[in-house]
Design a protein that fits this description.
285 residues
């Protein structure tokens, strides 16, 4: 009898408070390229309470429209945590995961759902010149010495929570200077091989990191990043440099023969070849 009453109360509670709740968000940056582009995966885990909202979740299992999920769940964090005014987002894909029996508690009609967002980010480029526009992209890059690329994280590219503006605030910082990563949000960067730290003003958990230490992955959580600075170097192996040199040869030749000076270049090559053939013929005589 007591068990039946408990189940009835649980059913009434879950029916009354049916809703979607945010559990946690994992934003992971990986596959960082030489041009500052990277892959991003966002795993947004949500709690689905009540049969009604579980039905809504199941009905949208094949829907990959992020606006649908944001409107259906009314969860603000269902979005890309990247500023598209600063970053060029490509190849976006959203995949809802099934509500499996392992992720549900039938006693209180509570299930765990998950949305997986995958996309690539690039710096914006000029449509006419195809040159990278300054201060865009998740990272700015500088090949400041042979076989070494320096990366600097662009905090303007991140759209985690900003501080609320108050009229009586004495702070001179703007909302763009501060990025707030809440306690249920995890921002991770997986680094390429041979990555070393150059400079960081707010490491994860405020634990001091020695300069030029090797890096494999860092994760920020429950942090307030003020005027955030993060710089790291990636050193290429000699094999990569040699392969890169030969892979650039076809493109360089194409630029030479397709450029404004292509006719002059062809004439010079013909003259050089002709001169070589002529001199060889004189030697034979």
């Amino acid at each position: 009898m007591k068990k039946a009453v408990f189940l009835l109360i649980a059913l009434l509670v879950t029916s009354t408070f049916a809703e979607f709740r945010l559990d946690r968000v994992d934003v992971t940056v990986s596959d960082i390229k030489k041009d500052g582009s990277a892959k991003i995966e966002e795993r947004i885990k949500i709690i689905v309470i009540g049969l009604g909202d579980q039905g809504k979740y199941k009905a949208g299992i094949n829907n990959n429209d992020i606006s649908y999920w944001s409107a259906t769940t009314k969860i603000n964090e269902i979005r890309r945590h990247i500023n598209e005014e600063v970053v060029d987002v490509r190849n976006f894909n959203l995949k809802p995961l099934q509500l499996s029996s392992k992720k549900c508690n039938p006693l209180v009609d509570l299930c765990h759902g998950e949305l997986v967002l995958e996309y690539e980010v690039y710096p914006h480029t000029n449509n006419e010149t195809n040159e990278i526009i300054a201060n865009t992209g998740l990272f700015t890059v500088d090949s400041y010495k042979p076989r070494t690329i320096r990366y600097k994280l662009n905090p303007d590219a991140l759209t985690f929570r900003s501080p609320e503006k108050t009229s009586n605030s004495a702070s001179t910082l703007t909302s763009e200077d501060v990025v707030i990563i809440d306690s249920n949000i995890y921002f991770s960067i997986i680094f390429p091989e041979n990555t070393r730290l150059v400079d960081i003003n707010q490491p994860p958990n405020d634990v001091a990191l020695p300069s030029y230490m090797p890096l494999s992955q860092l994760t920020w959580n429950d942090a307030v990043l003020t005027q955030f600075l993060f710089v790291f170097d990636v050193e290429e192996g000699l094999d990569d440099e040699v392969l890169g040199f030969f892979s650039r040869i076809p493109k360089n030749l194409q630029n030479i023969f397709a450029g404004e000076q292509s006719i002059a270049t062809i004439i010079i090559i013909i003259i050089l070849i002709g001169s070589y053939v002529y001199l060889r013929s004189l030697d034979k005589k």
